[in-house]
Design brief:
12 helices, membrane, transmembrane helix, single chain, 310 residues, mainly alpha, globular
Length: 310
């Protein structure tokens, strides 16, 4: 597929801008949405070391549910929820089209440049358009190469791209399990209300299908942490390079230690939060009575999402 360099780079810039703007919206939502289990994890750790009071499973569910209800005000209204889904869709489409455009047009662009250049031109420094192409390829974790008939471009996914690809099915299943299926109005689910769809729902899954549920949530948190951290690093680097009037032409092949540190910290807090939410409820508590009253409806949600309950 042949595209003029100016047209190609203009399209790439537009897709990059769309991807970045939608990423800000989705990333903000992720931070708010994943806050409850992380806060519970902090409470559990503080309780374990004796800094805070005891934190049993009912306290953990109550604390997580309160934080989640605060977040729902911002992302689960009649206006913001469609905007959230639109942002997710825009981010997926723009990122996918950008990578597809790079993969499908690089060979023709390189071939055209080579055929129209002399031996002296082949040793000349790359133009501004070439720099834009290289920078865009670098943003996707691609390995930029010089234009020559004997060389070929290799587009290997970076950690940022790989974590984004992993997030697609995980987020899709998460929306299905926690939003779409519980909102079905047909029996036996009969549309769980917001008060019924609190962290008792998550706690039930951790008790009834512990390994699968914990693995799904841990995968979501780790992949999201990697994707947001590496993406934020790229946005900051791009902003600094634009202010300095320079372009970064060499890719960072490995994420910095900060990325792994943040991801490890988030994963550790999440594991602590899961440990606080997973224990059995006391049969004397109000929380247990509430869950028992809607247990059949909750169990059906998990079954329809493909989870086998013990």
């Amino acid at each position: 597929m042949k595209l003029r360099p100016g047209v190609r780079n203009g399209v790439l810039r537009s897709l990059t801008t769309t991807s970045h703007l939608s990423a800000v919206a989705v990333g903000s939502f992720l931070c708010v949405h994943l806050a409850p289990p992380l806060v519970v994890g902090i409470s559990r750790i503080l309780s374990t070391v004796g800094i805070a009071g005891s934190c049993d499973v009912e306290d953990a569910i109550d604390n997580a549910s309160r934080i989640m209800l605060l977040g729902r005000v911002y992302y689960q209204s009649s206006l913001t929820e469609p905007l959230l889904y639109a942002s997710i869709g825009l981010h997926l489409v723009s990122s996918g089209l950008k990578r597809l455009l790079l993969a499908c047009t690089t060979a023709d662009y390189t071939s055209t440049t080579t055929d129209s250049s002399s031996d002296d031109d082949a040793t000349a420094p790359p133009s501004a358009e070439d720099s834009t192409t290289t920078e865009t390829a670098t943003d996707l974790g691609a390995k930029p190469t010089r234009s020559s008939s004997s060389s070929s471009s290799s587009y290997l996914p970076s950690l940022h791209t790989a974590s984004g690809i992993v997030l697609v099915p995980i987020v899709g299943h998460h929306i299905l399990l926690n939003r779409l299926i519980p909102s079905r109005s047909t029996p036996p689910i009969s549309a769980l209300s917001p008060s019924e769809l609190d962290y008792s729902y998550v706690s039930y899954g951790l008790r009834s299908a512990p390994l699968v549920t914990a693995a799904l949530y841990l995968s979501l948190v780790v992949a999201a942490a990697l994707h947001v951290t590496t993406g934020t690093t790229r946005l900051i680097a791009r902003s600094r390079s634009q202010k300095a009037g320079t372009r970064r032409t060499r890719p960072r092949t490995k994420p910095g230690t900060g990325t792994w540190t943040i991801t490890a910290a988030v994963a550790s807090l999440f594991v602590a939060g899961v440990a606080a939410l997973a224990p059995q409820l006391s049969e004397d508590g109000q929380r247990w009575k509430m869950v028992r009253a809607i247990e059949t409806r909750i169990a059906e949600c998990y079954r329809r999402a493909g989870l086998r309950l013990s």
